[in-house]
Design brief:
The complex is a heterodimer of chains A (about 240) and B (about 725).
Chain A lengths: L20 E6 L8 H10 L6 H5 L7 E8 L6 E8 L17 E3 L5 E3 L9 H5 L6 E2 L26 E2 L5 H13 L12 H5 L5 E5 L6 H6 L4 E2 L11 E4 L4
Parallel strand pairs in A: 1-10
Antiparallel strand pairs in A: 1-8, 2-3, 4-5, 6-7, 9-10
Chain B lengths: L2 H7 L35 E6 L8 E15 L2 E15 L12 H5 L1 H4 L9 E3 L8 E3 L2 H14 L5 E5 L3 E2 H13 L5 E2 L6 H11 L6 E2 L6 E5 L10 H13 L7 E6 L4 H5 L2 E4 L5 H14 L10 H8 L3 H8 L3 H13 L3 E5 L8 H15 L8 E2 L14 E2 L2 H7 L2 E5 L3 H4 L4 H5 L3 E4 L13 E2 L10 E4 L7 E5 L12 H11 L9 H8 L10 H11 L1 E3 L29 E6 L13 H4 L8 E2 L4 E3 L1 H7 L6 E6 L2 E9 L7 E5 L25 E2 L6 E2 L3 E7 L7 E2 L12
Classes of the chains: A alpha+beta (about 240), B alpha/beta (about 725).
Chain lengths: ~240, ~725
């Protein structure tokens, strides 16, 4: 974990009316309970990897809890953090895609276009966070499990790369709702599934260009850091470190 | 989903989904080729419900949208539009969930659409346990079961159920009473009998205390993995988050004492690796320091209680707890000198002296004087009306089942969670199961009368713990997928056939009984019920009074440490955050969820410390044979760097004989080798009291670990 290299105040939008979506995760609140992991599965139609597939390293999670033991018994600690796509401003995954299936949209989302992806996996290879997941198999939903699938999210076929989208379908819904009611999107109106479900309320999501937003407030505190920020990827996920 | 949008979108209870309450965006299906950023969501509705994955009773909201189900009609497959459930979230109005939900609650929708659900009533066609059943119609099933029940001695009916309380348990109580059968009983596992007894002993309260950790400045938790698999994890996780960072300038500190490096231990500021069964001694040692060193003034502790702590042999207590004296003194001083100190007590792993241990830990709060105080301990919020009175309680089972003519199994899986009952259950003449799946116990039943899934049924649930009196309600809002029937309806039907007509306790009748009981009721009964149905429950605003009495009789000593050269290791099966006591093992999302300790998926390992692993010459993924006086199992080993030397732990959840395609035959059940020693105060099985020895295994077992770091050779080898 590095010093914070890109202060939240420096995250700029190209247009005053266009937000830059970001997330802050307070590790002092997080308990590593994995509610975010399952919330993401349900929301985003994440396929189930069988035991054989998991043994080959083919599990699919868009968000995971990394945990590292430190020290030895009895003075042992564990460091853990939810890791998802960091939605980097300078994303290493983007320039290596030969078919432009991944790019940065105007709101700062690192977007994956499933029907353009040809499955070279260069992007996953270049991602320092290991948060891109390749569909080695077609997803299987034995009937009637498919009834649960979220129609707002494409079911990805085999051969396609996928990753966390910050629940772009929820962002879109939030914007449409605001538009229909002739108002601006309010802070907290849009919550990705992981943020919404988090029992310890350890995650904040919102517009990083709005200094009053909860995510900006959290990202601006002294405990705020970025994962592997020294690589210059300019992540838009901020981690608030534990401290006494 | 926030409060504003929830109220805007929620449909009226039983009106049926997709009937126009939403009317926002156009209803259209989303083609694959539409770019993600251009997606127009289809029509949706949100309905209030309640999660039944554990006894916590979290209020939820459920997203319902149109879907197409494939069905067979005259030999052809046709697509039938149905209202399908897409997502479950916490109900923001509910005082327990507060709009949040745990991994198990999130995954519950897979139980509804599980491919291996039982589609209708079944009669046993082969030997018990063979899983050989024939499908029959409901009329046949109910008439034949009623005919048998008519001929048995009703006093010898045993009705096994879970700790969950609400309209279902109340209807079952009426049924049993009407036919002259004894009240329902829990199976003694995962029913919080120990914590209830300790609450009674320490405070004179009937129910679980509510710990106000969100306002505490220093929390010492003893024995309860309250952020993992114990009691009400969402409720306490919310409070934990607030304790840590929800108050400007105040960060609460958590010190956790448990014989396992649990979810709560790794979230804590400090972990006290207490010896298995050493929790009682630890509480006495802490209390000894507080009283002897006059660290805190309190008028809540009686003189006899203070004297009991003073009389404790501090050195002996420290030794029995397995912790250094200095460490215990430091914690006692920090605790007593903190502005709002609190001790949270429970027994995630039940041992013979657990009730006394939890009582002693609870009594530290009396020494701290925090009962009824902000950041202290609050009494349970009991519901007005008759529902609470019919709480299923534990009664020693082996003898009861040994004499039983009929056993009815509702909402529990005793052959998995209490496998020591298998022998007595096998001799029972008639076993009736209400399971929705062919689980371990249903496979041994003569009749299976499958219940609706919780998301298809109407029910009112009293949360296990709640800051204020609460009845959380789930009106039915989607049609049942299969030919299942709600168990309360089946019981009413059976009672009628036995000439013992009863009225079911419905959600509306439960709400009606609460009208006028609260502090702010000015509505008509109809408006009151409608409001409760819409918002997903009735929640009183005021806390109960904090009257308590303290125990006067001496509580006895802690259990001495056990040693047995033939079985040198303490064995502790523990409930997991993903499966609890094995009730959710059939859900594939939870099977592929990495285990927090080992990052194992699909199989769960036995955990040993690095030194023991070295002695046994085993590494991650090797097979270990765990042998107790009652049996043995083989499982892959995980060398846990945080395991206490000499203590072997194993997560509960795998080892189902039969429980759908995703759990059947997967791994081993740690409870299967447990000696069911009775807990001394309550008689519930102390499943954490078994000792084992370890050998290298002979079978090949697979340990699949998700985290890349775990696939590398462990630094301790």
């Amino acid at each position: 974990m590095s010093e914070q290299l890109v202060p939240v105040s420096e995250i700029q939008s190209t247009d005053d009316n266009v937000p830059r979506w970001g997330m802050a995760i307070d590790l002092d609140r997080c308990t590593g309970c994995e509610a975010c992991v399952v919330a993401c599965h349900v929301e985003n139609n994440i396929p189930v990897a069988t035991e054989d597939e998991a043994a080959m390293g083919r599990s699919s999670h868009w968000i995971r809890i990394d945990r590292y033991y430190e020290g030895t018994f009895p003075d042992i600690k564990v460091k853990y953090r939810p890791v998802l796509c960091q939605q980097c401003d300078d994303a290493p995954c983007e320039p290596v895609c030969p078919v432009y299936a991944t790019y940065q949209n105007a709101e700062g989302l690192n977007v994956q276009v499933y029907n353009r992806c040809v499955g070279t996996r260069y992007c996953a290879n270049n991602c320092p966070y290991q948060v891109r997941v390749f569909n080695w198999f077609d997803p299987e939903w034995p009937e009637p499990l498919e009834l649960q699938l979220n129609p707002d999210v494409s079911v990805r076929p085999g051969g396609v790369m996928e990753k966390c989208t910050f629940c772009v379908q929820r962002i879109q819904r939030g914007k449409l709702d605001a538009q229909a009611e002739d108002r601006k999107v309010g802070d907290g109106d849009i919550q990705p599934a992981c943020v919404q479900g988090c029992p310890a309320e350890a995650m904040a999501f919102g517009d990083l260009t709005d200094p009053e937003s909860k995510v900006s407030q959290w990202a601006g505190v002294g405990r705020s850091t970025q994962l592997l920020g020294e690589l210059g990827t300019k992540p838009k996920v901020f981690y608030l470190e534990k401290s006494d | 989903m926030d409060r504003r949008n929830f109220f805007k979108l929620v449909g009226t209870a039983s009106g049926g989904a997709l009937t126009g309450a939403c009317g926002k965006q156009a209803q259209e299906l989303i083609p694959l080729l539409v770019p993600a950023t251009e997606i127009v969501p289809g029509a949706e509705e949100w309905h209030p419900s309640v999660c039944s994955s554990c006894a916590a009773g979290c209020g939820t909201i459920v997203r319902v949208m149109q879907a197409e189900r494939k069905i067979e009609v005259e030999g052809e497959t046709v697509r039938q539009p149905i209202a399908a459930i897409k997502k479950i979230e916490g109900n923001p109005l509910d005082p327990v969930s507060g709009g949040r939900l745990c991994a198990r609650g999130q995954a519950a929708v897979q139980g509804l659409y599980h491919p291996d659900r039982l589609t209708g009533p079944r009669r046993r066609a082969g030997a018990r346990g063979s899983g050989d059943f024939e499908l029959v119609d409901w009329e046949t099933a109910l008439s034949e079961v009623a005919a048998v029940l008519a001929g048995v001695d009703r006093r010898r009916i045993v009705y096994l159920t879970s700790a969950g309380m609400g309209t279902g348990s109340a209807t079952a109580a009426r049924f049993l009473d009407s036919i002259g059968a004894p009240p329902a009983t829990t199976i003694g596992v995962n029913d919080f009998t120990v914590e209830r007894r300790a609450s009674q002993l320490a405070f004179g309260w009937d129910g679980l205390p509510v710990y106000e950790i969100q306002d505490a400045t220093y929390v010492l938790s003893i024995g309860a993995d309250f952020l993992g698999g114990w009691a009400s994890p969402v409720f306490y996780s919310r409070r934990f988050g607030h304790m840590r960072r929800g108050r400007p300038g105040i960060r609460g500190k958590l010190v956790h004492a448990e014989s396992r490096f649990s979810q709560t231990a790794w979230s804590a500021d400090r972990w006290l690796p207490v010896a298995p069964g050493g929790e009682h001694a630890l509480a006495m040692a802490i209390g000894h320091v507080i009283v002897s060193d006059k660290l805190r003034e309190s008028d809540q502790a009686g003189e006899s209680l203070r004297q009991a702590f003073v009389a404790t042999d501090f050195s002996a207590a420290c030794k029995a707890s397995g912790l250094e004296e200095k460490r215990i003194r430091d914690v006692a001083r920090e605790l007593a000198s903190s502005m709002s100190p609190l001790v949270l007590a429970g027994a995630s792993i039940v041992r013979p002296g657990s009730s006394r241990a939890v009582t002693a830990a609870n009594e530290l709060n009396l020494l701290l004087g925090n009962i009824g105080a902000k950041g202290g301990v609050m009494p349970p919020a009991s519901l007005p009306g008759g529902l609470t009175a019919e709480r299923p309680a534990y009664r020693p089972l082996e003898e009861q089942i040994g004499k039983a003519e009929v056993v009815m199994i509702d909402g529990v899986n005793p052959l998995y969670a209490a496998p020591w009952l298998a022998g007595s259950l096998a001799k029972v003449e008639l076993v009736i199961s209400f399971a929705g799946f062919l689980d371990d116990s249903a496979a041994h039943a003569d009749w299976i009368l499958p219940d609706h899934h919780e998301l298809e049924a109407s029910a009112g649930v009293i949360p296990l713990m709640s800051p204020t009196p609460a009845l959380t309600g789930a009106p039915a809002f989607v049609k049942p997928l299969h030919e299942t029937r709600a168990t309360p309806d089946v019981l009413v039907d059976l009672a009628r056939r036995l000439d013992a007509a009863i009225e079911p306790v419905t959600l509306d009748s439960a709400y009606a009984s609460l009208h006028g009981q609260g502090t702010d009721e000015e509505s008509t009964p109809a408006d009151f019920i409608d409001q409760a149905r819409r918002q997903g429950g009735w929640w009183e605003r005021e806390r109960p009074a904090d009257a308590h009495r303290t125990r006067t009789e001496p509580l006895g000593d802690w259990d001495p440490p056990v040693s047995d050269p033939a079985y040198p290791f303490a064995f502790q099966p523990y409930p997991t955050l993903q499966f609890g006591f094995g009730g959710e093992s059939h859900l594939p999302w939870l099977q592929q969820l990495p285990d927090p300790a080992s990052s194992a998926v699909w199989n769960l390992p036995v955990e040993v410390d690095p030194a023991t692993a070295e002695q046994l010459d085993v590494r991650n993924g090797d097979t270990l044979r765990v042998i107790s006086p009652s049996g043995e199992l083989e499982a892959p080993v995980y060398v846990n760097p945080a395991a206490i030397p000499g203590v072997v732990s194993m997560p509960i959840g795998q080892g189902h004989g039969t429980f759908g395609r995703y759990a059947s035959g997967q791994g081993a059940n740690p409870l299967s080798i447990v000696d069911p020693v009775p807990e001394q105060e309550t008689g519930v099985p102390a499943f954490g009291a078994t000792r084992v020895r370890l050998e290298k295994g002979t079978t090949k077992q697979r340990l699949v670990q998700y985290a890349a770091v775990d696939r590398q050779p462990h630094p301790h080898r």
